[in-house]
Design brief:
The protein is an alpha/beta fold. It is 27% helix and 21% strand. It contains 8 helices and 14 strands. The strands form 4 sheets. The protein has an 8-stranded mixed β-sheet with strand order 2-1-5-10-11-12-13-14, sandwiched between helices. A two-stranded antiparallel ribbon has the order 3-4. Strands 6-7 form a two-stranded antiparallel ribbon. α1 packs across α2. The longest helix is centred in the last third of the chain and has 17 residues. The two termini are 28 Å apart.
Length: 256
């Protein structure tokens, strides 16, 4: 049996959701790792786009930020940020937005702004950046984050990016025509919105993960699909490619 960490199975599982024909708007951090793993394995033709305007970028290491020179150097083209958002994103040319978050609620709304009261937060986060526009304009949205009670909360401290609002029909009432979040990938499970209520529901548990451990790491009364799947474990190839990518990244960034 392959030995892997919870972060590795989360990244591999997320990467598998992407296809060779996707045009993907990539967030920094865990989304970037998943998207580039997909590109280096089963989806070599995927088009990766970062917020700084780099189109079809093929970085050899994971970028530190959207302004990392690695993205521009390996991109097919680089356009201005206004063109990226007005023509590419709002023009409906991007199939998948891949986002992370500090907090998520039962309807996949995201917080990347503050933890605690807005005026006097306990933690001030990086902010929305392009995430609010990504959440509303990409064909669908995948979300990746570790599952803890601090992150999976009953009520967000701040709604930065809309998911499914408070349930079915909320996006449509706001004039949003895209699907919104369709997949949430954590280090414990895969969750998808219920077709009728849009509330996140566990559909697959990672190997060795129990229902109870998922419940204990969620801040609301979590629901499970009638038939739960078991997430396939990472393959040797997937782990080798991911670990090599991370090793190159550490070397490039001067990390031991």
């Amino acid at each position: 049996m392959n030995q892997y960490t919870s972060t590795e199975i989360m990244t591999v599982t997320a990467a598998r959701l992407l296809s060779n024909t996707d045009v993907c708007f990539v967030g920094i951090g865990a989304p970037s790792a998943a998207c580039n793993l997909a590109r280096l394995t089963h989806a070599p033709g995927i088009t990766l786009i970062y917020e700084s305007g780099t189109i079809a970028t093929r970085p050899s290491v994971l970028p530190l930020s959207i302004g990392d020179g690695e993205l521009c150097e390996t991109a097919l083209a680089t356009v201005s940020v206004p063109e990226m958002f007005a023509y590419w994103l709002q023009g409906g040319r991007i199939t998948v937005g891949f986002l992370g978050a500090a907090q998520i609620d039962a309807y996949a709304n995201l917080n990347t702004t503050v933890v605690g009261p807005y005026d006097k937060p306990s933690t001030r986060l990086p902010g929305g950046g392009g995430a609010p526009e990504i959440a509303t304009n990409c064909g669908e949205v995948f979300i990746i984050l570790k599952q803890t009670k601090r992150g999976f909360v009953d009520k967000l401290d701040f709604v930065t990016s809309i998911g499914h609002g408070r349930g079915k029909g909320d996006r449509e009432r706001l004039g949003i025509t895209t699907k919104g979040p369709t997949q949430v990938i954590t280090d414990l499970a895969i969750l998808r919105p219920d077709p009728e209520t849009r509330e996140l529901t566990v559909v697959s548990l990672h190997p060795g993960v129990t229902r109870q451990s998922v419940v204990e790491n969620t801040g609301w009364a979590l629901k499970f699909a009638p038939t739960l799947e078991e997430t396939p474990a990472p393959t040797v190839e997937e782990l080798e490619v991911l670990r090599a990518l991370q090793a190159r990244t550490r070397t490039a960034h001067g990390q031991a």
